[in-house]
């Protein structure tokens, strides 16, 4: 009995740690808001966030470090989630996708934009990252986080657990999806159509969702005696 109680306490401590790590990742992924404080020299209406960390950018190290830390924390969080919670189909997909997002975010930071790269003839020069390897890592990151958001949301409804993800998380997912649709549609139209703003809304939604997930893990852990079965 004493051993079981000790193991239960350890698991609860580790889950609290997991919640903190996810929350910190959400905060560090919001480092782009520093563009409104630091003299970065980019227009949020006509620039992508990747340009904050492009080669030669004045504060590249700040944004690259933030993304790298975000990715590393989420890789750890994904592994922790798989180990600490019972596994169910949708939540397993969610944890794996979250880990993929972390790995892609690290790759994104290590493959910055090169402003000297040539833009293919006939393409808009406003958003050069669309024509570089960076576009691949960014696409993988966005795809992964949306798979995670969708999987955890479906799990929250299907298993009738995790109310924060089921309610606040759902609205954040909707906002992020609208911003993503804005990006995809406007990218194929002449002009910029506020693509920079659309991406900032999209990334902001991702950060908020990570904070919601961290809060949900903490709330579920506080009530879990024994551990909640859905969370895996």
From TrEMBL:
Keywords: Membrane, Transmembrane, Transmembrane helix
Protein's UniProt keywords contain Transit peptide: no
Top-level taxon of the source organism: Bacteria
Segments passing through the bilayer: 16-42, 62-85, 92-113, 133-156, 168-185, 197-220
Pfam families: DUF998 (PF06197)
InterPro entries, per the entry: DUF998
Tagged with keyword Membrane: yes
The protein's name in its UniProt record: DUF998 domain-containing protein
Organism: Nocardia otitidiscaviarum
Lineage: Bacteria, Bacillati, Actinomycetota, Actinomycetes, Mycobacteriales
